[in-house]
Design goal:
Elements lengths: L5 H18 L1 H9 L6 E2 L2 E7 L4 E4 L21 H12 L1 E10 L4 E12 L2 E8 H5 L3
Helix pairs in contact: 1-2
Length: 136
């Protein structure tokens, strides 16, 4: 959702986890990837990784599904997916910030992502940090 905060990213992940637990993996992953589904709100969406960093669901780019993202780097060269996987594996949940290209503004902006490990999945959602800071 445009202007969402880290708190709203966390709530969005909690909503996705509840859906996953209710419907099961196959239905949840399909719905997380559905471009017209309930897990895409404005600029906020859910994406799901496995514990090896492979993309299993992505709310805005289904071409990413099945791709190995473990070594994908952000605009500053940081291996943020590897960090998400490592923190999720050790702590179960957390936040990671990374710089990502925002197509509509054509800028590299900091994205603030919350994630939780559930079974063998890491369910994630993030917001562009600059957008919600302006509203505080």
């Amino acid at each position: 959702m445009y202007g969402a905060s880290g708190k709203e990213a966390k709530e969005f992940v909690k909503k996705a986890i509840a859906f996953y637990k209710k419907t099961g993996k196959a239905v949840a992953l399909a719905e997380f990837t559905n471009p017209k589904g309930p897990f895409i709100e404005g600029e906020q969406y859910v994406f799901v990784l496995n514990l090896k960093g492979t993309m299993l669901a992505h709310g805005v780019n289904e071409k990413y599904i099945g791709q190995d993202f473990i070594d994908v780097k952000d605009s500053d060269g940081r291996s943020f997916i590897r960090e998400i996987v490592e923190v999720a594996d050790k702590k179960g949940s957390g936040f990671v910030d990374y710089k990502w290209y925002k197509p509509d503004t054509k800028e590299d902006l900091v994205k603030h992502v919350y994630f939780e490990k559930v079974d063998d999945l890491i369910i994630c959602s993030g917001v562009y940090k600059e957008m919600w800071r302006e509203l505080l």
